[in-house]
Structures are given as structure tokens and as C-alpha cells.
Amino acid sequence: MLDKLLIQRTLRVPASTGATGDGTAVARQLDVALLDVGFSASRALLEHVGGLATGPALDLASTVVSAVRELVGDHVQHNAYFIGFPDGVPDTVEFWLERVHAAVLAGGGEAASVDLARLNLLDLPGYGTYQHTYADFLAAHDDLIASAGDRVTVLRLGDTAEAEATRLYLALAGGSTPLGEADLAVLTDLAILCADGPQPDRIPVRENRAVLNGIRLVLDRPLVAVDTTTDVLRLACQVSGGDASLASATRFRAFRRRERRILLAALNDVVGANPAKLGDVARHAEPWKRLGERLHPHEYAQWPHAREVFAVARRERKVHGLAGRAETAIRGGNVGAAASVLSAAPGLLLRSADRLLRQASAGDRDAVVDAVTGALGDASGRVLCSLREHFDNRLAPASARMYAGRSRRAWIGRDERPPLPSELVAELSARLDAEIAGRLAEFEHPLLVDPAVLGVALPLSGKAAEGGFAVLPRGSRTSISGELLRFFMYWRQTRRRTDYDLSVLLLDERFHAAGQVSWTNYRHGGIVHSGDITNAKTGATEFIDVPLATKGHYVVPQVYVYAGESFDEVAESMFGYQTRDPGQRGAPFDARTVRSRSQLRGQGRVALPMVFAKQEDGWQAVWLHLYLRGWPAFNRVEDNRVTTAAQVRAVVERRYLTMSYLVDLWRGRTEVRLWDGRVPDEPVTFIGVEAPDLPDGSEVYTLDRLGELIPE
Q: Which side of the chain, N or C, has fewer Cβ within a 10 Å radius?
């Protein structure tokens, strides 16, 4: 299980410690099996498998193939409702009438006896359920014709599983950006395995601290990096199986006496060292009060500072935090004083910079600029990059202001903020550029950059992405090859009948609706739906084929919860896309043509994974990773056209800070070359989507490591 996790996360295969022997035949079989799913083994990996005894070689090969098939979604059977898809899909109304006719014949009645106004599609014979087996479906299609454009992803040989796990653990735990749900789960597993091994020097992300300390609390290890009262609250939420980000309420479990003593002692140390830390308590007063009922602080007189925390939460003692004092100053019209107060918390000051600059009088603006400038050196690199991106979008009001929470739930509002003066934006952007450039990593070798990575948005938060294969952060752009897009969506329900609907909304260049394809409209302008499945007890898939010659300017695939379990309740759910040439017909799913596959695990009843935008030089995929609340049931594309269009426009028109920004800053510090496909003669530091064969001694940063390039 650990080996599979490491392969999927890093595309590196942990070296086997099994007996040596002649596994050459197994290596050849592995190479063929990998090519069938769009992967290839590096020479070093094949030599390693070939040098193992048959048993260990087979075990390793089986793990590798299983891991990559699951990674691209090839571990399940992707059947289609219409056996001839994409051919033979009828007109929607025609198909419904055919089902009505079948119902009439089955009931021995006449068509006139059917009340169409009260017709329930689920009652019609054969509607929404497969009428053929997966084997029948494959037999009805020719094999997929291989194309030069098919994806081939190289798997490389790594160190032992223990070494690879330690490396990944240190990278995740010590990373400077928050992790997404999938990576937090990986970190939890690795924290258990690596509890007694090397630990990161710093743990800047507080959710990571909660995960690590949760494991350490259970294993009776000393806590690490606890320096605020909120760190203790996050820890209590984590070990209670709740939300360490504190975005949602947690039901605290009962704590053992030993655990209560550790938590209260940590609180006592934090407040005793700096009583001002009590100012954070009021922000989370309710969870603190509920936690106090579990920790019984009144029983531990030896930790008086810990008892103060719960006194503040119960409002028996009043403490003014920085945010409260700053808010008081702002309401009193003294914005300069508010900036001075917030200077004690550089990150909070920079996150409040826009508001302070907008509300500052002419006399206060210089004081605010000075405070912001003074805070740059003490704030994290992630905050600096976020503010730099923010200023890039403040020269004019946005068409719509999008709010996206940590759960990727999004909503739209009007942008009523006045633009910031261009000269002010230019001044602060230049200061940010200088500070960020000064923190960039120093590389031993020349920098070699894959042009394909330049459009990838800086991974400032793992919350803005899903787990999966070749998944990029929100706002990232990648070019699309081929002449046909094929979207696929798979889900498998847990307990209740669950009906998901894959749909496509077409938008024109002004983001106005220009058509749709869904279960209510199987065809539009050459776009074809594979048919509506309404029950996924053993798993179900829906497809949509989109010729890139379509007249739409934006193609927006969406997944709707029509009935049943939500995205975070089902046993499994995924979305992905394939690209194909016209001659590549055959089975609707072929792993070699999968360009990306992402999980669907967000909160909401409507998922917007990505949008495809037509450019002068071709099509681009733009990652969204958004969820809309939707209705409890019966969500349809027809009812969400305006909201979807507004969300898409907000992301497409926003200027995201991408890897090209960091590369441009590096140009002033080191030699930078764009990769042209040729292997360099000397070791390099490579930044790209996938790693090519490089000289020994090269350092490689691909998608799984781009977060390490964000300055600390």
C-alpha cells in the first residue's frame, strides 16, 4: 500500500529489497503492460526489475501497474449507456418516446393511455440502467488506434520505500503552502511511519502541525512547533476526527487524562510566554468552550495560564486582540493607527493591505505604505506571492468578484471596490518583486525550464486543487492537442441510489449561453452525450464527446448531483478528459488518451472542474476546481447557466501568478534556458511538467514539487 501511494504521488517506483535473480521476462511484460495505459518505465527501472528474482519482480510489477491504472482511472470499467457511442446515439425526445412505447407494450396498453405530463423517466423500461455488459460494449468497438499524440508518462526508479517515504514526509510536513485533502491524508499516513525518523526543521503551515501533533499525541511523543493557543485548538480538532482548519464545527471526543495534561500544559506554556496570545481566543470562543468541557481545566491548578484561555472564551475576562484593536481604529477614521497595530502581525497586515489603502486618507496613505513595506521582510513567501497576484487584479473592477473557500465552494458577488491607483500598485508590486526575488532558491546548476510549465499557476494553496493525475492549481492553463475532447465522469454510490449527470455548457466570447448537452439534450452541434445513467450501485460512467471545431468559445464540463449522495459521500467519484484524433474511435475509455483525472470530493451539489477556452492559436484547458451549492436534488445545467457563466468568467479573466513569474525573477540571478527537447550535456536544475532523461547530478522539480519553489 505504501509503495502504491509513493508511485502515485511522485511517479517514482521505490526500489525493491527482494532477492536478486533473473527477472528479465517480467521486466519485458511490465514495459508492455505500462504502454497499454500510457506509461513507460525508465531504463533504470527496467534494469532493476530485471535484476530481481521472479517472485519479487512480479510483486513489484503488479504494484506498479495497479498504481498507475488507478491513477488514470483505468481500475474501473467505464461502460456507456448506448452501446454504439459515439455513434448510434438517438435524438433525446425520440429516445424517450421509444422508452414510452416499450412501457406501453410491456403493460399491454396503448400509447394514448400514457399520461405524458406525469411521466417519470425512471419508471420506463431500461431507462438509466445498462442494457449490455462491459464485455459486450468492448466487443462492439474496434481497438483504439495508437496515435503519435498519445500520452506517455515515464516512471522512474527511486530509492527504497523507507527513503522515499521519508523524503515525501519531509517535503509535505515542511512545505510552505497548505495541503489539499488528499495530501493531508498522505501526510497523516506518513507521520505514523516516520514518527521516530528525521523531522522537518520548520513546520510553517499550522494544519500540518495539527496533523503531526495529532499523531505525536496518540503515540505519546512531545508536541512540536506549538506557539499559539489556536495551535492547541487545531490539535484537539484533529485528534477528534474534525476539521483542523477550523472552518467547520468539530464534535470533540473524550480525552484521556494523559492527553488532557499534555494539551493543558501546552496552553499554559504558550500563554505564560506571551499573554498577548490570549487575543486569539475570542475568534473561536464557541469551540474553546466546548473543548473546556472535555479538558476540565479547573482540575489542574498547576497550569493557571491554561485556565485563562477558557475564562476568555466564556467572556469572564476581556482581551482585545490585534484585529479588534485595528477594527476600532478603522471605525474611528484612524487608518494609519490601524496599520501600526497590525504591524505586530505581518501576515494579517498584508492580507488587510487592500482595505487599508482604500480607506486611508491622503495623510494616512504614506503611513500605510510604510507599514506594508516594513512587513514584507517578516511575512511568508506565500503571503507575498498572494498579495502580488492580488495587486495585479486591482487596476480595474472585476466583472464579478468570486469568493472561493477552502472547501472550494464558490459564490459570486459584485466587485464594488474602487480600483487602486496605478502608481501605487506599481510601487508596491516592485517592492514585492524585490523581496520575492531575494528569497528565491539558489541553484547549483543552470535552470532548464519546460515551456509547458510556464502557464501553471503558483501552488499557493493545495486547497485550490483536487487529488488525481496531472491536476493543476486553479487558474492554470495548458494547451490542448488533438481534434476531439472526450470528458468522462465516474461515480459509485455508497448506500443510496445516486444519480450524477455529466453536462456541457457552451458559452460565446461574451460568456453568454450558446447551447448545452446533457441528459435532456443528447446532441448539439456535433457534441454527443453517451446516455443517462441513474443508478451507480456497482459504478457508472457518462461521457461527452466535443469536437474542437465546435462554434462555442468556451466549453464548460460540469457534474450535477441530480439525486442521492453528495460528492464527499459517495464511495468514489472522478472527472477527467481525453484528447483524440478523428481516426481514434473505439472504446470510450482508453488510458493512453487520458490527459488528466481528478477526484470529485468537494462540498456542493454542482462541480465545475475546468473550462476549455478557444484562443487564436488553439484551445487551452483552464482549471477551475469550484463547487456550487446547488439544490438538494434535481440540479440541471439549464438552471445554472447564469451562475456557471459568472464563475467561469471570474476565473478566466483573473490574472494568476504563474511559474513564468518566478522564472522571470530567476533570470536576473542565474542562467535560464527553455527546454527544446534535447538532453543537456551537463547537470541542470529542471522545472517542468514531467522530467526527461537528464545527466546525473541534475535536480528535478515537476508537478509534485513545484510548491517547494515558493519562497519561504
A: N
Side chain identity, residue 263: L
Element (H, E) at 490: strand 484-492
- For 530, the grid coordinates are 453517451
Q: Are 86 and 594 in contact (CB under 8 A)?
A: no
C-alpha triplet 671, 674, 676: angle, nearest 5°: 135
Reported as half-sphere exposure (CB side, CA atoms, 13 A), residue 356 has a value of 30
Are 443 and 682 in contact, with CB atoms under 8 Å apart? no
Q: Provide the pLDDT confidence category of residue 112 given band limits of 50, 70 and 90.
A: very low
Quote the CA–CA distance of 627 and 606 in Å, as a whole number: 6
Total number of domains constituting the chain: 3
pTM over 0.90: yes
Q: How far is it, in rounded angstroms, from Cα 343 to Cα 323?
A: 11
Q: Which phi and psi angles does 296 have, rounded to 5°?
A: 55, 60
Question: 477 with 424, same domain?
Answer: no
pLDDT in tens, 656-674: 999 999 999 999 889 999 9
| Structural domain includes residue 89 | no
Helix (H, G, I), strand (E, B) or coil at 448: strand
* Other residues' Cβ atoms within 10 Å of the Cβ of residue 560: 25
How far is residue 162 from each of residues 10, 64, 214, 400, 712, measured CA to CA in Å? 14, 17, 22, 48, 27
Q: What's the CA gap between 113 and 149, in Å, rounded? A: 54
Contact 372, 343 (CB under 8 A): no
In a domain, 134, yes or no: no
The CATH number for 570's domain is 2.60.60.30
Q: Which helix (H) or strand (E) holds 136?
A: helix 134-139
- Cβ–Cβ < 8 Å for 71, 8: yes
Region at 265 (left for phi over 0; alpha for psi -120 to 50; beta for the rest)? alpha
Helices then strands (H, E): number in the chain? 22, 22
Given a contact cutoff of 8 angstroms between Cβ atoms, the answer to whether 469 and 541 are in contact is no
Q: What angle do CA 355, 361, 365 make, to 5 degrees?
A: 70
- Residues 407, 529, single domain; the answer is no
Same domain? 507 vs 451: no
Count CA atoms closer than 13 A to 21's CA, side-chain side.
14
Residue 608 lies in a domain: yes
pLDDT at 533 over 90: yes
User: What's the CA gap between 208 and 179, in Å, rounded?
Assistant: 8
